[in-house]
Each structure stands twice: as C-alpha cells, then as structure tokens.
Amino acid sequence: MFAVNVENLSRKFKDVLAVDNISFNVKAGELFGFLGPNGAGKTTTINMLSTLIRPGSGDARVMGFDIRKQRDQVRKSIGVVFQEPALDSRLTGRENLEFHAMMYSMKKSDRMARIKEVLELVELTNKAGKKVETYSGGMKRRLEIARGLMHRPEILFLDEPTIGLDSQTRRHIWDYIKKLNRETGITMMLTTHYMEEADYLCDRILIIDYGKIVALDTPSNLKNILGGDVVDLEIKGANGSCAPLAQEFEKLEWIKTVKEHECSLSLTMNSGETRIPQLVSIAAGRNIEISSINLHKPSLDDVFIHFTGKTIREQAN
Amino acid sequence: MAIYVMWLRDMKIFVRAPSRIIGSLVIPFLLLISLGLGLGKMAMPGLSADVGYLGFLVPGMAAMTILFTGMFSGLSVLWDRQYGFLKEIMVAPVSRVSIVIGRIASGASTGVIQTYLLIFVSIFIGFKLPSFFSLCFALVYMILMAFIFTSIGLIFASRMKDEQGFGLIMNFLVFPLLFLSGTFVPLNNFPGWMKIISYCNPLTYGVDGLRNTLLGSSLIPLPVSMGVMGVAAVLLIVLGSYFFETSEVI
C-alpha cells in the first residue's frame, strides 16, 4: 500500500486550472518532494490531500483512506505544517500543543508525556510557557513541526517548511526533517520552490509547473538527464580557433559532447572533477595553454530549465 | 471533547483580555447613566415610577451586551481564517458541528458573564436587583439570545473573506436590530410598520423576556417569547452549522 496514491487529480479555481490531472504515488517512509515555482499547484495539491479543500475531479488515497469519503480517517493519519503559521499567538506554545492533542482525542497522560517529548525534539522546552506572539519565525515553525507530530501521524505534510527563514535556521530545520525521517520512518511530503532544499532532502522529487507533472524521479536521475558535468575551458592565444584541440577531445569516449565557441570549449562528461587533470595534460601535450577552467555540476535549476524550457517552446509551437 | 477544547480556548483568550471585558461594558454603562439617570423616575408601561427609565433600560442594556458579544464571537471565525488558525481546526478529525457548538457555547459563556457584570454594576447607580431565582431565570433568555447572535455572526463569517464587510454588518444589521426592538423604547410607542419589523426581530423577544424575568413586567406573554426564542435558536444553530461546513477554509 502506498502512503499516498493520487490518480488524475484536478482542481479548478474559477477559470484557473490549479492542478491538472496529476497522478503519482508516494511510498511509505519516503521523503517526497513537490518542486515548482509559485503558483505551480503545490499548495493546492497538499490542501486537497489534507482534506482542507475538496478535489475537483480524480481520486486520491492517503494511508489507504479516500480523501473524499473517509476524511476523518485521513485526518487522523496525517500531520500538517502549513505554509503560513497556523498558531494561536495569544496562547502559549504548550497550550497550542494541548489544544491540538485534545482535538485529536489524546488521553491526558499520553498528552503530557508526548508534549514533553516533542518539545525536546524541537528544542523548545524552555519557551513552551511563553505566548507564541513572542516567538521568532524559526521557533514558530519548529513549534508547528512539533504540533504536526503530536498525534504520531504516519505521514507529515510540510508546505514550504523553510520559507522566510534565515539560512542557519533553514539548515537546522532540514536536519530535523532528515533526522525525523531516518529515525522514525515517518513518510514526509514537502512542497518547496527551493531547488537546494528538494535536492538536499528528498528521496524523490516531483517537478510541477502550471498544475502539471513535468518530471518525477530521484534527484540524481534527474540531474543525469542533462548528461553529466560541464567543464568549460578557455584557451589562451588560439588565434580564434580551438578546432585541433576540439577534435582531439571528440575522439575520447569519456567525453560526451564538445561544443566550440571561439576560444572556449564546453565539454560534457561524468565526474568532471576527476577528469580535469587529464584535460590539462592533453592540452599541454599539444602545447596549448588553458587560461581558465570552470566545472559546472548540474543542479536542479538546470533540470527545471531543461524541462520547462522545452515545454514553453512546445507550447509556443 | 472537541466542543470542550474549542470552548476552553475561547475562554482562555477571554480571560486574558480584561481590558476588553471592561471596555465592552462602557457603552451600556454610559447609556444607563446618561439615559437611565437622565430620564429618571419616569413611569414606564407596566412599571412603577420608582423603577423608572433606569430600571426599564437595564434589561435592554443586558440584551445589547449579548447582541454584541454574540456577534463578535460568531465573527471571530474571520480572525481565525485570517491568522491561519482555522486551518488547524479544520484539518483535525473533528465534526464540523462540534466546532460550531463549541463556538456557540463560548459565545454564550462570555455573553452571560459580561451581562451579569453589567447588571451587577448597575446596582451602584440605583438598579434594584431582583431575587436570585429571577436572576437565574433570566439566564435562559440570555443563553438563547447568545445562541442566536453567535450563530448569526458565524453565518456571516463563513461567507466573508476578510473584515471589510464588518462595517456593513454593524450598520445594516446590528444597529437596526438594536434600535428596532424594545431595548430603548416600549414597543407600544412605535408606529405600525416599526412594530411589525420589531416583531420579526429576535432581540425584541429577548429584551422582553429579560424585562419579564428581571422586572416582572412584559408586553409579550412569557411562553410566546420563550417559544419564539427557542425556535429561532434551533433554526439559526442549524443554519450556522450548514454555512460553516460549506465555508472556505483558506
């Protein structure tokens, strides 16, 4: 059984098709990412899966429960950390957690123990008695993660978990998320528009744009689609042509592509960082001086541009 | 359990804002001293001159307190939506009806507390407190009024996007309800068309019921006012639940 199973899910808002016929599965224990620009349909999808809004058409099951017909069972098995803070700032951190625990029918003794546990997990034990209005952005986010975990859900949805946070806090939150997934095996589904976040955290990434699925694979597979690392070489004093060196490189089977632009060459290969010494010695062997070398490892940025750039051109046609 | 949790949260917030509690008593109190003491020992229909306009007005001010407290309580769904907390409520495995009942219960609790405070304060300016039994009987009307107005507030909040509509609701609903009832003036004095409108207003029956229980005099027979309030309360609670259930969370 998949943790999340989505089939042909769509949702319209007035005239805008926010989510357009998407289908995918999330395996139990997976750290699954939804990557896309703002307005791509990520939050709408999470809102449908967490039963906050009704789906337009299509089906989805969360932990085996139907999101239309078995909403309360879905709600019991999920924890949600929303994009905008959903805390009551007039109450203390502890009171916010208590409210949540009682809404999820946790027994008193269990409540007390669990509150202590989750507060320790997110390192907010000392601040639990203070009103949430005194908390920083990072603290609020951590409290919300604690709250999402209170009732021990099987799956945790995180909608843009580090948006608006400074880089140090982001790193901390990334580490909590990874640690949580590793130690408890809880399935996690997060949405983000930050490439590094999806790359760093996720087992698999679904790239979404304009409500449609653009790609779905592991980060490394996605990056491999681009063919590998790119090494850019600037040749010194080649009098406008690096053709001889280019030809030499083309003969090598570990170099995938060679592009020539005046006095610079763009080579695609795997593990570029290990090949640079070879390139330098080949050039030296022909008395050609390389004036600069640039190694560019593909990022999801490139993947995204690769996919959506293509899509835009197709649409234009 | 959900009803209790929702109620508890609202009560905690209520208790933490004593300035708001006192603040909401200011207008009714000022009306009592300016109109009540100002118009003095006027003989009101069914009441001796000794009770005066002040005595006549106290139940009116009590009802006014519940009107405002109830409406604000129901409308607080708007703030929850704006500050995001509504999402936390709606994503919980809790029936929508219990959320509504919890809200209505806290609307009633806060309304009743404030109203008894007002009645207590009015003793200092000359209001004669009725028997303990009467005060308890008055509670029935207070609770029914609170149910009605909290539900009305909830209905509006369920369909409003933000607090922009607030002004409209105050001016075109709350104040007309307040003035087209027996709060300030005995209904007999109203021209025919105003009387008709007033008899369609639940506040009219609530004020009359409070006058009946606190002063022993009323225009509308007790069974009638209690019956109308009861039916209105049930109807509006059901409507409130429906509107809330079908409202947008975001």
Task: Walk me through this protein's architecture.
The complex is a heterodimer of chains A (317) and B (250). Chain A is 39% helix and 27% strand. Chain A is built from 11 helices and 14 strands. In chain A, the strands form 3 sheets. Chain A has a 6-stranded mixed beta sheet with strand order 6-7-8-3-9-10, with helices on both faces. Chain A has a 4-stranded antiparallel beta sheet with strand order 2-1-4-5, covered by helices on one side. In chain A, a hairpin with a 2-residue loop joins strand 1 and strand 2. Mean pLDDT of chain A is 88; it is low at 311-317. With 250 residues, chain B is mostly helical. The longest helix of chain B has 31 residues, at 52-82. The two termini of chain B are 25 Å apart. Chain B contains 10 helices and no strands. The interface between A and B is medium-sized, with 28 and 24 residues.
Q: How would you describe this structure in keywords?
A:
heterodimer, A: 317 residues, alpha/beta, four-stranded antiparallel sheet, 39% helix, 27% strand, disordered C terminus, B: 250 residues, mainly alpha
Structural class of chain A: alpha/beta
Largest interface: A-B, 28 and 24 residues
Main pleated sheet of chain B: none
Instruction: Tally the helices of chain B.
Output: 10
Count the E strands of chain B. 0
> What Rg of chain A is obtained from the alpha carbons, in whole angstroms?
25 Å
Physical arrangement of strands within the biggest beta sheet of chain A: 6-7-8-3-9-10
Query: Mean pLDDT across all residues of chain B, rounded?
Result: 91
Oligomeric status: heterodimer
- Give the ordered list of helices and strands of chain B: HHHHHHHHHH
Overview in brief:
Chain A is of the alpha/beta class and 317 residues long. Chain A is built from eleven helices and 14 strands. Residues 311-317 of chain A have low confidence and may be disordered.
